[in-house]
Write a structure and sequence with these properties.
The strands form nine sheets. Strands 27-28-29-30-34 form a five-stranded antiparallel sheet, with no helix packed on it. With about 400 residues, it is an all-beta fold. It is built from one helix and 34 strands. Helices cover about 0% and strands about 45% of the residues.
Length: about 400
C-alpha cells in the first residue's frame, strides 16, 4: 500500500462506527440532459456559480443552496460562454456571439452581470482570477497581450504586449498554441510569454506594466549560442492546482521528450523543479490510488467504493475532515459518498436513484466537482425521474442534524 500519492485530495477511507442519519437531498434544478462543464466549480461571496450547456443554449447560473436562490445569471441561444473564472467575491465570464466577445462581471449578491469591455480571444488564451482581479491572455499572430480588470470599466485595460519570435519551427508554434499560459498566484499571475533574448519563458505580473517581469529562463541557451535562445524556450503550461503555488510543465523537446514539472510563487527564489502535489497517507490496506486518478476502497475482501480524483477543485469538496465523492459499492450504483481519516470512516450519503440505479452513470470516470456551501453539499445527480439536476444535501454536524434513517456506513 502506498503512503504517498500524486494528489492533494484524499484522506484514507475506511469504515467505522454506526449508521449516520442524513437528510434527503433537495432538488435545486435546473435539469440537464447533456453535460455540466466541470471547470465551473466556483464559489464567490457565498454563492456557487456553474454553467449549463444544452445544445445551442448556454447559461451561467448561481445558487445559494436553496431552490428559490437558484437562478440564471446570463443566458444565450446565439453564442457561447467560453471562459468563466471566479475570485473572492466576483465572477468574470466572457460571452461570445457573431458580433464579438465581451468580458462581464457579477458579484454573489448581484442580480444582473455588468459588461466591462470587448475582448479579443486569440490563441493561446487563458483567464484566471487572483483575489478579485481578473487576468486574461491572448495572442494574435506574433503579438501576445496580457489584460486585467478589477471589476470596473475604468480598471479594465491592457497590461503589456509581447512580441513572439519570427520563423519558429512548426513544432514549437504548436507547443505555444496548445500551452495553458496563465495561472494565479498570491498577488497576481504567472504566465508563459516571449522575451526578446530568451524566448517563451516564465513571467510574473501584478497587473501593472512596471511589475510585469521575467521570473526565470528555465531553458537557457548554451554559452556562445545565444542566438538559439528562442528555440530553447521552456513554454510553460500551467495546471489548475489550488494553493499558494502554481504548477506547470515545460517543453519536453530538449529534455528527452519528458515534460519536467516546476512550481512557482511568482518569484525566482520560489521557482524550482517539483513533483505534482502529494499527500502522506496513513498506512492502510483498504485504499489505493491508480496512476490515472482512480481510487478504490475495499473491506472484507470486497470493493466498497471507487471513483476518480479531481485535482483542480480539491478545496471545494472538503469539510470538517470529510471528502465527498461519487462512489459505487456494486449494490446501489454510483451515489454520493464521504470519507475521513480520523476516525477512519467511509459512508454512502445517498441513494438518489433507488436500488442499483446510478446517480450519474455517464460521469463515473469524470464526474462534476461537488461544492460545499455553508452546511450543504451541492452535487449533480439523476433521481431517475427528471433527468440530471443539481441537488443540495444537508451535511451539518451529526448533533445538528435531525435523524431521518438515510445513509449507510460500510462495516
Amino acid at each position: 500500500m502506498r503512503k504517498a500519492v500524486f494528489t492533494i485530495l484524499f484522506c484514507v477511507l475506511f469504515a467505522a462506527g454506526g449508521a449516520t442519519a442524513l437528510s434527503a437531498p433537495v432538488p435545486l434544478g435546473p435539469a440537464t440532459t447533456t453535460r455540466v462543464p466541470s471547470f465551473n466549480a466556483i464559489v464567490a461571496d457565498g454563492a456557487h456559480f456553474f454553467q449549463l450547456v444544452e445544445s445551442a443554449h448556454q447559461a451561467l447560473w448561481r445558487t445559494d443552496g436553496t431552490p428559490e436562490g437558484t437562478l440564471p445569471v446570463f443566458e444565450t441561444d446565439k453564442g457561447t460562454i467560453p471562459f468563466v473564472a471566479g475570485g473572492d467575491s466576483l465572477v468574470y465570464f466572457i460571452a461570445e456571439d457573431s458580433s464579438g466577445a465581451t468580458l462581464n462581471v457579477v458579484g454573489g449578491a448581484e442580480k444582473e452581470p455588468r459588461p466591462l469591455a470587448p475582448v479579443f480571444r486569440g490563441e493561446p488564451f487563458g483567464m484566471v482570477v487572483s483575489g478579485d482581479n481578473c487576468f486574461w491572455y491572448s495572442r494574435l499572430g506574433g503579438v501576445g497581450s496580457l489584460w486585467t480588470s478589477d471589476g470596473t470599466k475604468e480598471g479594465t485595460r491592457e497590461v503589456r504586449s509581447f512580441q513572439y519570435p519570427q520563423g519558429l519551427p512548426p513544432e514549437m508554434e504548436m507547443e505555444i498554441t496548445q500551452a495553458k499560459p496563465l495561472a494565479a498566484v498570491p498577488g497576481g499571475v504567472v504566465l508563459g510569454a516571449p522575451h526578446p533574448e530568451v524566448g517563451v519563458e516564465l513571467w510574473f505580473s501584478d497587473g501593472t506594466e512596471k511589475e510585469t517581469v521575467l521570473v526565470a529562463d528555465l531553458l537557457p541557451a548554451p554559452a556562445g549560442a545565444e542566438s538559439m535562445a528562442p528555440l530553447l524556450s521552456s513554454v510553460p503550461t500551467f495546471e489548475p492546482y489550488k494553493g499558494g503555488f502554481a504548477y506547470f510543465s515545460i517543453s519536453g523537446a530538449l529534455t528527452g521528450n519528458e515534460s519536467p514539472v516546476y512550481r512557482t510563487d511568482g518569484t525566482k527564489a520560489g521557482t524550482a523543479p517539483a513533483s505534482k502535489p502529494t499527500v502522506d497517507l496513513a498506512a492502510s490496506d483498504v485504499f489505493t490510488v491508480e496512476p490515472g486518478g482512480i481510487f478504490r476502497a475495499a473491506y472484507g475482501g470486497r470493493e466498497v467504493a471507487m471513483g476518480r480524483i479531481d485535482l483542480s477543485n480539491a478545496d471545494l469538496s472538503n469539510r470538517d475532515g470529510y471528502l465527498y465523492f461519487y462512489g459505487n459499492d456494486g449494490e446501489t450504483g454510483w451515489e454520493v459518498w464521504r470519507a475521513r481519516n480520523n476516525p477512519a470512516t467511509l459512508e454512502r450519503m445517498t441513494d438518489l436513484n433507488p436500488g442499483a440505479g446510478d446517480t450519474a452513470p455517464q460521469w463515473e470516470m469524470w464526474p462534476p466537482t461537488m461544492v460545499v456551501l455553508g452546511n450543504r453539499l451541492l452535487f449533480w445527480g439523476n433521481d431517475g425521474k427528471e433527468g440530471m439536476g443539481l441537488f443540495a444535501l444537508d451535511i451539518a454536524k451529526d448533533e445538528e442534524r435531525e435523524p431521518s434513517g438515510d445513509g449507510d456506513v460500510v462495516e
